[in-house]
C-alpha cells in the first residue's frame, strides 16, 4: 500500500515522552537562531538544514516529525520543496509542514497551502506561538499516524478473514463417482458471511452434502461456520444419519450460541450406487428434486425441525427419498429464496421451481448460470441482504431403478 | 445504525400509561441507512396482563434492536402475555428471527408467553420454512410451503 520510504523519525509511541525531530532551515538570521533555541528549549531534536534541497535530503535520510519552511529559500521555491516532501514521504503524507511567511506576503501563503503545507506562521516568529503551533501539529500527526496504523491492522485482519472464508467456502465442491455437483456462492454486502457448504465421502461410500446459514456476519459468523464445519465432519464420519448429526450439532451450538444466535442447516446423504437419499433439515429451505426425464421439478420436504442452537429438547428426524440417474437435487440458502427486488418482492420457491423445470436439456453449469442469472437480475441494483448459495447435484450413474431402499 | 426519531418518549410514558387500559403507550420509529424501505415503527398497547406491540415495517438486522429493547423494558412489568402483531411486517430476516427467538426464551424464563399475531404472508413463509410456526403459537408445521 505505502511506498517503502524512510519512516518519519517517530512513528509510534507516546506523544508526550517521545523526542520529536523538527527540521528547520537555518537562514543565519537572529530569527532563525531564536526559533532553534525555542524548539530546543521545548525538548525537540532540531535538525538544521542549509537550503530546500538539504531539507528534502535530510528528511528522506533521517526522517522528521515536523518541517518549518521559510517563504524564501536560497535554492528553490518552498512550494516545490513541499511537493517534493509529500512525494517522497510515503506514509509521511501526515508530516506537518509549516510555512514561515512575512506579514505582507499573501501569495506565499496561498501557494504554500496549495502545494500541501499544513499551516503558516508569521515572521518574525513569536516564540510562544511557535511552541503552541508546533505542539498542536505534532499532536495531529500523532493521531494521524495512529489512525494509519489502526487502518493497516484492520486491512490485515480483513485479509485474514477473506483467507479463512475462502477455506470454509470452497469455490468448487469435491466430485465423487456417479455424482456431479456445481456450486454458486455470492457474499452479501456485509463483511464476512453466514453461508457455508461442503461435501464429503463417508466411510461407507455414501456422500454427504451439507449447506448451512449462520445468523449474523463478520468474524462471529465465520467462527460459527468453522465450528459447524468441524462438528459436521466429525459426526458424519462417525456414521450418524443426517438427523442424528443435526442433533449433535444442536447440542454443540447450544453451548456456545447466545440467545439470539441460530443456524439453519440441511444435510443430504446420497448413495451413489443406488441413489438412496437420506436427508433432514433444521429450519433450512427444503431442496428441490428436478427430474429432467419426467420434466418435473418438485419441492422435497424432508422431516427435520427448527434451526440449531435454540432449543435443547429437540429431536430431528430423517426422510428417505431417491435420486434417480439423471435426477438433480438442488440445495440453496435463504438468500436465494428471499432475495428481494427494488419493490421488496422476494424471489421465491415457485419462481425457482418453474425456472428449473426448463433446464432439463442443459448441463449442470448452464442450469446454474441460468438460475443465478435470474436471481441476480431479480435483485439487480440491490446489495444482497444475505449470502446467496445454490448447489446443483446430479446423479450421473450407478444402478438404475426407482425403488426406494429401506434404511 | 438506526436513527431514533422519537426516543425518550417511551421510557417516561410507559410508567404512567401502564395503568390505562388499552391506550397507545409508546411509539418508536427507526430508520435504517437503507432508507424508508427498511424502517420500523413499534406501537405498544395493552394493559397489565397483556401487552401488544404492532410491528409496522420490516424486522431486519438494521431495525430489530428497538423491538428487543421495547420488549425487554415491557417484560420488567411481568405481563402474562406479549403479543406481536405482525400483520404490517412485510419482511423478516434471520436477524429479526434471532431477536424473536431470543425474546421468546427470555420471556419464557419469567413465565410470559410471546405470541405472534396475524403474520403477513412473507413472515409466515419465513416461519414456515424455519419450522418455527408452532413455537410462536401459530399452529403446526405440517405443510410447507404452498
Give a topology summary.
The complex is a heterodimer of chains A (407) and B (146).
Chain A: E1 21-25, H1 30-41, E2 45-49, H2 52-62, E3 66-70, H3 78-88, E4 97-102, H4 106-115, E5 119-123, H5 127-168, E6 179-186, E7 195-201, E8 207-214, H6 218-237, H7 242-256, E9 263-270, E10 276-282, E11 288-291, E12 296-299, E13 304-305, E14 319-322, E15 328-332, H8 334-337, H9 349-356, H10 364-378, E16 388-395
Parallel strand pairs in A: 1-2, 1-3, 3-4, 4-5, 10-13
Antiparallel strand pairs in A: 6-16, 7-8, 8-9, 9-10, 10-14, 11-12, 11-15, 15-16
Helix pairs in contact in A: 1-5, 2-3, 3-4, 5-6, 6-7
Chain B: E1 3-4, H1 10-17, E2 26-32, E3 35-46, E4 50-57, H2 64-75, E5 81-85, H3 94-109, E6 113-117, H4 121-129
Parallel strand pairs in B: 4-5, 5-6
Antiparallel strand pairs in B: 1-2, 2-3, 3-4
Helix pairs in contact in B: 2-3
Q: Which key features would you list for this structure?
A:
heterodimer, A: alpha/beta, disordered N terminus, B: alpha/beta, disordered C terminus
Fraction of residues in β-strands of chain B: 25-35%
Q: What is the overall number of helices of chain A? A: 10
Overall morphology of chain B: globular
Helix content of chain B: 25-40%
Going across the major beta sheet of chain B, what is the strand order? 1-2-3-4-5-6
Distance linking N and C termini of chain A: 58 Å
**Whole-angstrom Rg of chain A:** 33 Å
What does this protein structure show overall?
The complex is a heterodimer of chains A (about 400) and B (about 150). Chain A is an alpha/beta fold and about 400 residues long. Chain A is elongated, with a radius of gyration of 33 Å. Chain A has helices at about 30-40, 50-60, 80-90, 105-115, 125-170, 220-235, 240-255, 335, 350-355, 365-380, and strands spanning about 20-25, 45-50, 65-70, 95-100, 120-125, 180-185, 195-200, 205-215, 265-270, 275-280, 290, 295-300, 305, 320, 330, 390-395. In chain A, strands 7, 8, 9, 10, 13 and 14 form a 6-stranded mixed sheet that branches. In chain A, strands 2-1-3-4-5 form a 5-stranded parallel sheet, sandwiched between helices. In chain A, strands 6-16-15-11-12 form a 5-stranded antiparallel sheet. In chain A, helix 3 (about 80-90) links the parallel strand 3 (about 65-70) and strand 4 (about 95-100). Chain A contains 10 helices and 16 strands. The two termini of chain A are about 60 Å apart. In chain A, helix 6 runs antiparallel to helix 7 (about 240-255). Chain B is α/β, with parallel strands linked by helices. Helix content of chain B is about 30%, strand content about 25%. Chain B has a 6-stranded mixed sheet with strand order 1-2-3-4-5-6. In chain B, a hairpin with a 2-residue loop joins strand 2 (about 25-30) and strand 3. The radius of gyration of chain B is 15 Å and the shape is globular. At the A-B interface, strand 13 of A face helix 3 and helix 4 of B.
Amino acid at each position: 500500500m505505502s511506498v517503502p520510504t524512510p519512516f518519519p523519525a517517530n512513528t509510534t509511541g507516546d506523544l508526550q515522552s517521545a523526542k520529536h525531530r523538527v527540521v528547520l532551515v537555518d537562514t543565519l538570521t537572529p530569527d532563525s537562531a531564536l526559533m532553534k533555541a525555542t524548539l530546543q528549549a521545548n525538548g525537540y531534536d532540531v535538525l538544521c538544514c542549509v537550503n530546500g534541497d538539504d531539507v528534502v535530503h535530510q528528511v528522506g535520510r533521517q526522517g522528521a516529525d515536523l518541517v518549518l519552511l521559510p517563504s524564501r529559500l536560497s535554492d528553490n521555491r518552498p512550494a516545490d520543496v513541499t511537493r517534493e516532501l509529500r512525494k517522497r514521504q510515503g506514509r509521511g503524507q501526515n508530516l506537518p509542514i509549516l510555512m514561515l511567511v512575512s506579514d505582507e506576503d499573501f501569495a506565499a501563503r496561498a501557494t504554500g497551502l496549495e502545494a500541501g503545507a499544513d499551516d503558516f506562521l508569521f515572521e518574525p516568529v513569536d516564540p510562544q506561538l511557535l511552541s503552541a503551533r508546533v505542539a498542536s501539529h505534532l499532536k495531529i500527526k500523532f493521531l494521524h499516524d495512529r489512525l494509519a496504523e489502526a487502518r493497516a491492522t484492520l486491512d490485515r485482519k480483513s485479509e485474514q478473514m477473506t483467507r479463512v472464508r475462502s477455506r470454509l467456502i470452497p469455490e468448487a465442491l469435491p466430485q465423487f463417482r456417479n455424482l456431479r455437483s456445481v456450486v454458486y456462492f455470492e457474499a452479501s454486502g456485509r463483511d464476512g458471511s453466514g453461508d457455508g457448504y461442503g461435501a464429503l465421502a463417508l466411510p461407507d461410500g455414501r456422500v454427504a452434502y451439507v449447506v448451512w446459514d449462520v445468523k449474523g456476519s463478520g468474524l462471529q459468523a465465520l467462527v460459527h461456520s468453522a465450528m459447524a464445519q468441524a462438528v459436521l465432519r466429525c459426526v458424519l464420519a462417525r456414521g450418524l444419519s443426517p438427523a442424528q448429526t443435526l442433533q449433535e450439532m444442536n447440542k454443540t451450538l447450544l453451548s456456545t450460541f447466545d440467545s439470539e444466535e441460530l443456524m439453519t442447516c440441511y444435510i443430504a446423504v446420497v448413495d451413489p450406487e443406488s441413489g438412496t437419499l437420506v436427508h433432514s433439515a433444521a429450519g433450512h429451505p427444503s431442496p428441490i428434486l428436478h427430474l429432467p426425464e419426467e420434466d418435473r421439478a418438485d419441492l422435497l420436504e424432508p422431516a427435520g425441525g427448527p434451526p440449531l442452537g435454540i432449543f435443547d429438547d429437540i429431536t430431528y428426524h430423517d426422510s428417505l427419498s431417491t435420486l434417480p440417474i439423471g435426477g438433480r437435487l438442488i440445495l440453496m440458502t435463504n438468500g436465494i429464496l428471499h432475495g428481494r427486488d427494488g419493490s421488496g418482492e422476494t424471489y421465491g420457491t415457485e419462481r425457482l421451481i418453474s425456472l428449473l423445470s426448463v433446464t432439463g436439456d442443459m448441463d449442470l453449469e448452464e442450469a446454474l448460470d441460468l438460475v443465478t442469472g435470474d436471481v441476480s437480475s431479480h435483485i439487480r441494483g440491490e446489495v444482497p441482504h444475505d449470502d446467496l448459495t445454490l448447489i446443483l447435484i446430479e446423479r450421473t450413474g450407478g444402478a438404475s431403478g426407482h425403488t426406494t431402499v429401506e434404511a | 445504525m438506526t436513527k431514533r426519531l422519537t426516543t425518550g418518549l417511551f421510557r417516561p410514558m410507559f410508567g404512567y400509561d401502564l395503568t390505562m387500559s388499552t391506550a397507545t403507550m409508546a411509539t418508536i420509529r427507526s430508520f435504517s441507512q437503507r432508507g424508508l424501505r427498511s424502517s420500523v415503527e413499534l406501537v405498544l398497547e395493552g394493559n397489565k396482563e397483556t401487552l401488544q406491540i404492532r410491528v409496522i415495517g420490516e424486522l431486519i438486522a438494521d431495525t430489530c434492536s428497538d423491538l428487543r429493547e421495547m420488549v425487554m423494558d415491557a417484560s420488567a412489568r411481568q405481563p402474562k402475555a406479549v403479543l406481536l402483531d405482525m400483520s404490517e411486517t412485510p419482511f423478516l430476516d434471520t436477524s429479526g428471527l434471532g431477536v424473536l427467538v431470543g425474546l421468546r426464551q427470555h420471556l419464557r424464563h419469567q413465565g410470559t408467553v410471546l405470541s405472534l399475531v396475524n403474520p403477513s404472508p412473507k413472515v409466515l413463509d419465513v416461519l414456515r420454512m424455519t419450522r418455527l410456526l408452532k413455537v410462536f403459537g401459530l399452529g403446526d408445521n405440517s405443510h410447507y410451503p404452498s
